[in-house]
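4.2 Preliminary Data

To establish feasibility before requesting continued support, the project team ran the inverse folding procedure on a target of 155 residues. The structure was first converted into the token representation described in Section 3, and no sequence information of any kind was made available to the design step. The complete token record follows.
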């Protein structure tokens, strides 16, 4: 992402302990997620969505749906098998553990899978889902794979 103006917004450049930028097919930043540890609660963490709306950064996702998958501009070009995990931090770790895979995720957790545009997976032959080890993750992946299977069968 060439435009780094988000770093000044809320002092993200100084305060972030994790920064994940969601892009479109042209590698343009659409929104970002950032994590910080509050000074008054070092054990706590906060994750915020930030979007650029009408040329200004704001503290909200700014999208009602049709979310892109994380690193979309790389996903559509990759020839690697695809591993879809739950959460941006997990993408970071899984990318190191499984370098032969392209690792991605959807934004805003298990309950928001249905707001994501999954069409970028069309034509991808080797896609593996690896949810968090909890009921919400299993339900989300079951729903996603069912939807993708239904769309595949319809085409």
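Position-by-position output of the design step:
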């Amino acid at each position: 992402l060439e435009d780094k103006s988000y770093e000044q917004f809320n002092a993200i450049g100084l305060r972030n302990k994790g920064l994940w930028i969601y892009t479109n097919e042209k590698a343009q930043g659409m929104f970002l997620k950032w994590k910080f540890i509050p000074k008054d609660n070092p054990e706590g963490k906060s994750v915020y969505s930030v979007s650029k709306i009408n040329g200004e950064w704001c503290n909200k996702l700014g999208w009602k749906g049709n979310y892109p998958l994380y690193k979309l501009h790389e996903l559509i070009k990759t020839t690697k098998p695809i591993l879809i995990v739950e959460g941006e931090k997990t993408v970071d770790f899984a990318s190191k553990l499984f370098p032969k895979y392209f690792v991605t995720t959807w934004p805003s957790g298990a309950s928001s899978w249905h707001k994501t545009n999954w069409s970028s997976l069309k034509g991808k032959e080797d896609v593996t889902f690896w949810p968090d080890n909890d009921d919400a993750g299993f339900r989300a992946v079951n729903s996603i794979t069912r939807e993708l299977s239904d769309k595949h069968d319809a085409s």
